[in-house]
């Protein structure tokens, strides 16, 4: 049995991330609620403040290699390899997005730099 809400929210988040990865902030802006709340240290709340912060962060211009997506009703978790242009190892990231009525209202994330391969015998992903 499929959960239509979870599937719809998963597709919205993936579309928004793809738009952002292509440099289209307007695509992500259309998904973020004006009163968007960020729960990650250093990330500002508010749609415009968050987009400006993100556009000027290392994530801008990075490749996002999505490894898995888990959706449960209003929540979508995305596990991906963030690969900046100047750091081929990059970071392992898990973003958790909360959506209400098709708009992203909240965001949490965990980020871990990818160490040398000999330090992770089972791999990061």
The H/E string reads HHEHEEEE
Task: Return residue spans where pLDDT drops below 50 for at least 5 consecutive residues.
Answer: none
Strand content is 35-45%
Q: Biggest sheet, in brief?
A: 5 strands, mixed
Would you mind describing this structure in some detail?
With about 120 residues, the chain is an alpha+beta fold. It is about 25% helix and about 40% strand. The protein contains three helices and five strands; from the N terminus they run H-H-E-H-E-E-E-E. The protein has helices at about 5-20, 25-30, 45-55; strands at about 30-40, 65-70, 75-85, 90-100, 105-115. The relative contact order is 0.19.
Kindly list the characteristics that best describe this protein:
125 residues, alpha+beta, 5-stranded mixed beta sheet, 3 helices, 26% helix
Concise overview:
With 125 residues, the protein is α+β, with helices and mostly antiparallel strands. The chain contains three helices and five strands. Helices cover 26% and strands 38% of the residues.
